[in-house]
Structures are given as structure tokens and as C-alpha cells.
Design a protein that fits this description.
This protein has 17 helices and no strands. The chain has 427 residues and is mostly helical. The protein starts with a helix and ends in a 30-residue tail after the last helix.
Length: 427
């Protein structure tokens, strides 16, 4: 797009379609933060076991990975807006069952049914949401749009855990989950009001089997040097951090004597780090380039994770968690924006699906290992080990094409070769 055309465009915040999408997803994020806190508290309250928290996280994560395999196929075959509305309504109904069932007493078994299905629906929604950004804004605004979305999600998530902690302490975790269920109704209504730009559909792709379509996305990842390195390194990173929130909640309540309200305050204030990261990512990437930004963010993540478990005060835990979430936001938005920029639109759902399914595959096992180890050896030992592993991931990035990747996805940069506009990735 020419400089004059760019200058003539209205600011992104004045784009009505993007604005409606932005508000709908922010409301959904605020509700999600209730379940983010309430579900682990519900399990801990009913069983007193951090290992049970980790097991539920693992089961839900496994369902998410399985759904991710086919989520990209669905997103590239069918209307993305319709899929997002269907996912919202599914989660509305299922999460609403939890507080109703809890009226008869704790029903932990129900969480092992509801949460995996909701996580599977959530994975389809997330794949569709990532690809929808490409259908909402011009390519040169993708990083800006992602930054604005993530900043607002995080801003909503600041208030969410604070309120969730108050609601859980006063009315019980089931009520907090009911608030989360209601948020999906608002999100679905917002999605109903928008229209996305049409997606180019390749008829040859539409006739392929789902597994072949998924493999097309995986082949694209493998043939892009930077995306291949990101997928491998993030698989290790997710293994090390997937159970981090469970360990954090256990550390605050078990080791530091915090209440449910304290946990909500910690997560709510720490979410300010996500806001900061989302606001910083675009200028950082422009000035330092993709590689330096991504590696630097994951280096700081490692130090922050290591420090959380050995911190002996709630303010210190809050500050370190905020630093972790800030850098996690920077690295995640960089990675997501890069995929959106260099992947053909008709393949974007399958590439996103293959990327997430691959690097989240080890997450459920990591959650089980982290929470079991926290219960047996204590949170400090676990976070020190996980933090050291995160540092090794960052060091690994120095020996891959990630280090040489620049600030913009353009032909001629090492490892960043945009795919052709049409057709499919060959075998």
C-alpha cells in the first residue's frame, strides 16, 4: 500500500467493523478471566489437591490439541464468523451447567466433562479469531491490530480476576463460572453484528481429506525456517509453563497463606504486564527486529518464572508474574503476527492449527509434571527448574534463523519468504 493511501486511511480505532469485533472479544476475555481463576479454585476447594488441578488442566489441554488438528481445516473450509458464534454458544451452555450442578454439591467429575469440550470449542474459536484479523484489517496493520486486541484483552483481564476473586470469596467459585458463561452470550452477539472480508477458497483444497489439509499447514510450517524453529522451541516452552498458573495459585494459597481474593488480586494486577507487552510489541519489533524482540522476551520470561516460586511476599510474586506476562505477550504477538503476514489467506487456518497443535502437544504432560512436582517438592524447586528451561529456549533461538529475522516479513530476509497468493503448498 502506498504512503499516500496509508495516510488517507482512518485510524484503526475508528473502523466500525474492527471496533465491534474488538469490543465483543474484550467482553469475552473479561468473562474468561473468571473461569481462569474460578475453575482451579473450584477443584482446590473440593479436593485440596494441586495434582488434581494439574490433571484437569492436562485433560482440557489434550482436548484442545486434538481440536486444533481439525480446527484449521474447519476455519479454512467454512465461514469463520459462523464458527466463532457456534463456539461461543457451545461454551455458554456448557459453562452454565457447572453452577447449576454445584447446587447439589461439588461435582468435580462434571468439570472433567465440561472443560475439555469447552477447551476444544475454544481452540476452534481461537484459530478462527486469529485468521479473522487478516479479514478485518489490511496486512500492514496486522501487528497494530493484534497489539490493540491483546492490550484490551489484558485490560479486561486486569479487572476480571479482581472481581472473580471477590465473587469467589463472597459467593463461591461456581458463581464466578456463571459470569463467564454469560460473557459468551455477549461475545456471540457482537460477532453477529460484523461481517468479514471474503476468503479466497481453493476448490482443490476443499476436496481433500481433513488430514491431508492439516498436513498442508504442517508442511508450510516446516518449509519456513523461522516458523519451523519457532514451533520446535515453543513446544518446549509450553511444556515448561503450561501448568504455571496452577503452581502460582498453589504457591500463593499454600506457601504464602493467601485467600481466594488474594489470588484474584495477584492475577488481576499481574495482567497489567500483558497490557504493557501488547502496547510495547509493535515499536519494539520495528526498532529491534523480530529475532531480538522474541529472544529477549523469552529470556526475561525465564528469569521471571524462576523468581516467582522463591519470592516470599505477595507483592513480589505479583511483580514477577506481571513481568512474565508482559514478555509472554510480546513474544506471542510477534509470533502470531509473523504467521499472519507470510501465510496465504486460504491456508492461514491450517497453518495456525498446525502451529498450535504441535507446540501445545506437550503442554498437558507439562502441566501434570509441574503440578505433581510442586506438590511433592514445593513450588520454589519447580519454578527454578522451569525458569532455567525457559532460558535454554531463548538461548536456542540464537542458533536458529529466528536470530536473523528482521522487523518486517518481506522477501529477501533470511527465513521469511512469503508464499504465493494462490494455490496450495506442494507435497
Amino acid at each position: 500500500m502506498s504512503r499516500s493511501a496509508t495516510a488517507g486511511r482512518a485510524p484503526l480505532w475508528r473502523d466500525r467493523t474492527f471496533g465491534t469485533y474488538w469490543i465483543a472479544q474484550s467482553l469475552s476475555a473479561a468473562g474468561d478471566s473468571f473461569a481462569y481463576l474460578a475453575v482451579p479454585l473450584l477443584v482446590l476447594q473440593a479436593t485440596g489437591s494441586v495434582a488434581q488441578m494439574g490433571l484437569l488442566t492436562a485433560v482440557a489441554g489434550a482436548a484442545s490439541v486434538v481440536a486444533g488438528i481439525f480446527g484449521g481445516v474447519l476455519v479454512d473450509r467454512y465461514d469463520r464468523r459462523t464458527l466463532m458464534i457456534a463456539a461461543d454458544l457451545t461454551r455458554l451452555v456448557l459453562y452454565a451447567l457447572v453452577p447449576l450442578a454445584w447446587l447439589a454439591g461439588p461435582q468435580v467429575w462434571l468439570l472433567f466433562v465440561v472443560l475439555p469440550i469447552c477447551e476444544a470449542a475454544g481452540m476452534v474459536f481461537q484459530v478462527a479469531a486469529v485468521t479473522a484479523v487478516r479479514n478485518l484489517v489490511d496486512r500492514d496493520r496486522i501487528t497494530e491490530a493484534n497489539g490493540r486486541l491483546q492490550a484490551t484483552y489484558a485490560a479486561a483481564a486486569v479487572l476480571g480476576p479482581l472481581l472473580a476473586g471477590v465473587v469467589a470469596a463472597r459467593f463461591g467459585p461456581p458463581t464466578a463460572i456463571a459470569v463467564n458463561a454469560a460473557s459468551f452470550a455477549l461475545s456471540a452477539a457482537g460477532m453477529w453484528l460484523i461481517r468479514l472480508r471474503p476468503v479466497q477458497v481453493d476448490e482443490a483444497v476443499a476436496r481433500q481429506r481433513p488430514l491431508a489439509e492439516f498436513l498442508a499447514g504442517a508442511r508450510f510450517l516446516w518449509r519456513q525456517p523461522v516458523l519451523r524453529a519457532l514451533t520446535v522451541l515453543l513446544s518446549v516452552f509450553i511444556f515448561l509453563t503450561y501448568g504455571f498458573v496452577d503452581v502460582l495459585i498453589y504457591h500463593v494459597t499454600h506457601d504464602l497463606g493467601g485467600s481466594e481474593g488474594t489470588v484474584g488480586t495477584v492475577l488481576g494486577l499481574a495482567a497489567l504486564g500483558t497490557v504493557a507487552g501488547a502496547l510495547l510489541v509493535a515499536p519494539l519489533r520495528r526498532r529491534r527486529g523480530f529475532g531480538a524482540t522474541w529472544i529477549g522476551a523469552h529470556t526475561i520470561c525465564g528469569f521471571a518464572v524462576a523468581g516467582v516460586g522463591i519470592a516470599t511476599t505477595v507483592p513480589a510474586v505479583t511483580a514477577l508474574t506481571a513481568v512474565y506476562l508482559c514478555c509472554l505477550s510480546i513474544g506471542g504477538i510477534c509470533s502470531m503476527s509473523l504467521r499472519q503476514e507470510i501465510t496465504p489467506d486460504h491456508l492461514l487456518g491450517r497453518v495456525t492449527s498446525a502451529f498450535w497443535s504441535t507446540h501445545y502437544a506437550l503442554g498437558p504432560a507439562g502441566a501434570v509434571v509441574l503440578t505433581w512436582a510442586a506438590g511433592r517438592y514445593g513450588a520454589p524447586a519447580v519454578t527454578l527448574a522451569a525458569g532455567a528451561g525457559c532460558l535454554l529456549v531463548a538461548v536456542g533461538g540464537l542458533f536458529t534463523p529466528i536470530r536473523r529475522a528482521g522487523g518486517e516479513a518481506a522477501a529477501g530476509q533470511p527465513g521469511l519468504h512469503p508464499a504465493p497468493a494462490g494455490g496450495t503448498v506442494g507435497g
